[in-house]
Amino acid sequence: MSQPMYQPMSPPLSGKTALVTGGSRGIGRSIATRLAREGATVALTCNASRRGAEETVAAVERSGGSAFALHADLVDAKSIPDLFEQADREFLRRTGSDALDLLINNAGNAGWGGLMDATPDSWDEMFAVHARAPFFLVQSALSRLADGGRVVNISSALPPPAARASMPAPPASRRPGPTGVLGSAGRATPEGPGSGTA
Ligand SMILES: NC(=O)c1ccc[n+]([C@@H]2O[C@H](COP(=O)([O-])OP(=O)(O)OC[C@H]3O[C@@H](n4cnc5c(N)ncnc54)[C@H](OP(=O)(O)O)[C@@H]3O)[C@@H](O)[C@H]2O)c1
């Protein structure tokens, strides 16, 4: 009997692994579900929203993908080595390898409503999650990244809406351009960034 002319295509990220921080809701949930739909085995992290993380995992599994949730408070950079060790073990169990193909540094906290609400502690927490944690996540990822692996850092160049509302608009020549990968992204839902509310 002759061979078929074509083989069914496997999803583009089949056999790949991804770690998505802040996958319990919002943009991180959308990224995690999309990567899983493309075939990746996805580790997603949460802090306060454990139930949200479980919902993301359930959504992935309903569509036939593979994901698991890990807890880490990224204000504490010391949680990062343990996070990776847990991810290593689960990737190895699920895929036979603990190599990492994609690190998506997405977790972010809103910080404060406006300049007058900021405190030294909230300032420290915001920078811990948005700047310090991605730095040490990359440090831990380096020895695990597969050939052709990728790190994606998501951030924001804009202050929160309440702060924006109270700020005078700078002249056009001094307005900053987007510096984050999703610098102009809208709110996200499990269906995709930019629609509905997170
Ligand atoms: N939405 C936008 O319009 C927009 C625009 C530009 C850039 N961004 C950037 O895109 C990223 C995602 O935004 P989003 O709107 O999807 O945010 P979001 O809905 O507020 O979700 C934030 C995620 O980060 C996690 N997170 C917060 N604090 C954490 C901590 N201490 N330790 C670990 N995880 C923590 C949350 O986990 P838990 O809920 O489990 O704590 C949650 O999964 C952020 O980096 C943000 O700056 C967003």
UniProtKB/TrEMBL annotation:
Belongs to the short-chain dehydrogenases/reductases (SDR) family. This is SDR family NAD(P)-dependent oxidoreductase. Pfam families: adh_short. Residues 158-198 are annotated as: Disordered. Residues 158-173 have a biased composition (Pro residues). PANTHER family: OXIDOREDUCTASE, SHORT-CHAIN DEHYDROGENASE/REDUCTASE FAMILY (AFU_ORTHOLOGUE AFUA_5G02870), SHORT-CHAIN DEHYDROGENASE_REDUCTASE FAMILY PROTEIN. Residues 16-188 form the Ketoreductase domain. Transmembrane segments: none annotated. Keywords: Oxidoreductase.
